[in-house]
TrEMBL record:
GFO/IDH/MocA-like oxidoreductase domain location: 139-257
InterPro entries tied to this protein: Gfo/Idh/MocA-like_OxRdtase_N (IPR000683), Gfo/Idh/MocA_Oxidoreductase (IPR052515), GFO_IDH_MocA-like_dom (IPR055170), NAD(P)-bd_dom_sf (IPR036291)
Pfam family name, one: GFO_IDH_MocA
Protein name, UniProt field: Dehydrogenase
Domain named Gfo/Idh/MocA-like oxidoreductase N-terminal: residues: 7-122
Length: 365
């Protein structure tokens, strides 16, 4: 990567994702970015976080931090209901933002985020790290170039397990605070990678259910999606699956591409199976000839954000690209709760599903 000036970064929210995802990413890019502050509403947790990671400044509110800190980049690691307000406030203060998934609770909130961006920056980018592993980038390049033929059939499964105690945390499993269940909070990464591989979707038909967990949102959803290129995909999102797996399969005219992992992948987690008519061994070998082995992680995504900041350009997974998966999710919920198919672009400001993923309804008896 080209060397640039060192940016000043602030972490907002000192919980698990900040520690497991963002701290390693920032440390890996320490020649380009330094952690100058942390923000958390819990003073004790904030102090522990500062001490453990040697962060010089700490604040118990975003307002106090922005009044003093003036960061170049803010990493938002708080619960979903706070994302939009924090992101907008930081953008308006001139800071670029990398916000955890889901970026906000609705398309309406995402519109607020986009409105706060400015030409040349600052911009807000969404953490969708599965796009940035070398295996994923290789698969996207092969599919988009036509090297594997035409996409036909796909499957995208996020089958995880979360017990009732997981959802007993006050903000989880509630439309008002989490925005949705596994469709919104768990399968979003896999679905985003599927969109990177197959491009724009055209139509969705879906179902959702609350089968085994006591909460407001769904604990399982399924969808059929038709893409603009004609490919058709099935999507499953579950938090009820004892054998956990994240799985994507794309069948093309010349090959099947499969990814099997759980929370992150490396090159070895990708498998390519040639069609029977593909007999060129050198061609098949080239599909997995990847010069590097970058796992899907915050560490893989952050350099792209820093590059964009240095150039004053829109980063990946911001603006329209950052909105794509959120629109697919809104369409899945709308289809599931109305029993009707939904076309891309159909959910606008006059639609209740533009403002809430449950459409403001009571989907369960």
């Amino acid at each position: 990567m080209t060397q640039h000036r060192r940016f000043r970064a602030t972490i907002v929210g000192c919980g698990v994702i900040a520690e497991s995802g963002h701290i390693p990413a920032l440390r890996a890019a320490a020649d380009r970015v330094e952690i100058v502050a942390a923000v958390d509403s819990d003073p004790e947790r904030l102090a522990d976080f500062q001490r453990q990671y040697e962060i010089p400044a700490g604040y118990t509110s975003v307002a106090a931090m922005l009044a003093v800190g003036k960061p170049d980049l803010v990493l938002v690691c708080t619960p979903p209901a706070t994302h939009a307000d924090i992101t907008v406030r930081c953008l308006e203060a001139g800071a670029w933002v990398l916000v955890e998934k889901p970026p906000c609770l609705s398309l309406a909130e995402f519109e607020r985020i986009e409105a706060a961006e400015r030409e040349g920056g600052p911009y807000a980018s969404v953490v969708f790290q599965h796009r940035f592993g070398s295996g994923g980038r290789n698969a996207v390049d092969l599919i988009s170039s036509g090297a594997l033929g035409r996409p036909l059939v796909a499957a995208c499964h996020t089958t995880w397990y979360r017990d009732q105690a997981y959802f007993d945390v006050p903000w989880r499993g509630r439309w008002e605070t989490e925005g949705g269940g596994p469709t919104m909070g768990h399968g979003i990464h896999q679905m985003d990678l599927l969109l990177a591989m197959l491009g724009e979707w055209d139509e969705v038909r879906a179902m959702a259910g609350r089968l085994a967990r006591s909460m407001d949102t769904e604990d399982v959803s399924m969808a059929m999606v038709r893409f603009t290129n004609g490919a058709m995909a099935s999507i499953v999102n579950s938090v009820l699956s004892p054998r956990e797996e994240s799985y994507i399969r794309v069948d093309l005219t010349d090959a099947t591409v499969e990814l099997t992992h759980l929370y992150g992948y490396k090159n070895a987690d990708w498998q390519y199976t040639p069609a029977v008519h593909v007999r060129d061994s050198e061609r098949v070998a080239s599909w997995t000839d990847i010069p590097d082995n970058v796992s899907s992680s915050h560490t893989a995504q952050l350099p792209y954000v820093l590059d964009a900041m240095a150039k004053g350009e829109r980063p990946p997974l911001s603006g329209r690209q950052g909105r794509e998966t959120l629109e697919l999710i809104a369409a899945m919920y709308r289809s599931a709760f109305t029993g009707l198919p939904v076309r891309r672009g159909e959910i606008g400001p006059d639609d209740p599903y533009y403002h809430r993923m449950d459409g403001g309804s009571q989907p369960w008896p």
